[in-house]
Amino acid sequence: MKNNKINIAVVGLGQVGIYLYNELTSKRKDIELKTGKKIKIVAISAKNKNKKRRFKINKSIFFKNPLDIIKNEKIDIIFEVIGQSDGISKKLVETALKNKVHVITPNKALISKHGNYLSNLAEKNKVNLEFEASVAGGIPILRTIKEGLATNKLTRVYGILNGTCNYILTQMEKTKDNFSNVLKKAQTLGYAEPGNPKLDLNGYDAFAKIRILSSLAFNKRISVNKCIMEGIESIEYKDIKIASQLNFRIKLLGISELIKGKLFERVHPTLVKKDTYIGNVNGVMNAVIVEGQPVGESVLQGEGAGPGATSSALMSDLLSILRGNIKYPFGLPNFKRGNPIIYNEKNSSNSLYIRLEVKDKPGVLSGITKLLANNKISIERVIQIPDHKKKSASIVIITHKAIEAKAQKLVNSLKKNINILKKPVLIRLF
Fold first, then answer.
1. Which residues of 409-420 are buried (b: 16+ CB within 10 A; e: fewer)?
2. What pLDDT digit, counting tens, does each position of 126-166 carry?
3. Closest alpha carbon to 357 in 389, 377, 384
4. 209 belongs to the catalytic site
5. Residue tagged active-site, from 108, 113, 209, 220
6. Which residue segments constitute the domains of the chain, with CATH numbers given?
7. pLDDT band at residue 390, thresholds of 50, 70 and 90?
8. Can you tell me the distance from the alpha carbon of 156 to that of 352, in angstroms, rounded to the nearest whole number?
């Protein structure tokens, strides 16, 4: 950037936005020292001008309609911190890029859904679209893939991408408490949305992030196909206890890999060995593991959420722009990013953990094992835990590797079995 005086706008003054605003105002001298640029916040916008906030804002630069900022002010860089996949978030970013304004955002929902289109706009108008904060908060994973690992041939990227789910699973193991109680505690502590934490719990949040990682890692356009996306709502403490007895922990993993050149993305609860690196990432921490050649395996870990971690990533994007790093949003020109060839998830195979709550009576287990045999799924281990008071039992089956299509067929058959009292719990091993 040739001009040494840079005008900045911040749109969205929630927890992240207000923290960022304070960082921008309090660290101006540090930014100038490191980049040679003087920044000035000339416009801000949010739903409520008079809302009580953690840090004081300059109300004289407040715009009710964020689109008016671009009409009325000379803006060099705009931070979009609203968080919607569509609506005003998309319109604002689109308008900014068309007007040759650099955009920085932590909005993974927006990027995962519209990143292909918006990156085209940024490239066409020779401005940056930066979104380091959209995946794994303060972990510089996107820049690591785009720059640090740029010459490597990457084959797989996976990890713990949602701090809320990781906190809940960790606390359930630590406190021996049930899912709903631990969720309430997570909400009280601010780790989960107080109103509706569904997007964290059902796997959507992690799935949006794995799609962004896939695009960067494999130099392809963001995929739009449907594939495995499961959350942690069905996980009970007894699953965590049994997994522990088998030397496993349950983690919600986002996984993306190339299988014979085809893209296979998924998010689901996973049994991982206790002695693995990923098995020891606990609490609200995130971790991403990248595999490729010649680098081998690279591991990055840190806080994946919260205003501090997110703001740190947003500020790193800002400094990159101020230093004149005008670059392609996804690391290479859009015309070189072809559509991915999608691997058929039904052909994938995993060992399985299957928990069934059944009537405690003769013949139930033999009927279940017959269903597994009919679906050509072989059993490695069976655990029975009777509950004499309820005249029921928990049956846990660990299988050898099974084809996904057969596993799903089995689950559908188990649902119809009159001796099975609840929906089966299926967790894949990794």
1. bbbebbeebebb
2. 999 999 999 998 899 999 999 999 999 999 999 999 999 99
3. 384
4. yes
5. 209
6. 150-302+340-345 (3.30.360.10), 346-429 (3.30.70.260)
7. confident
8. 21
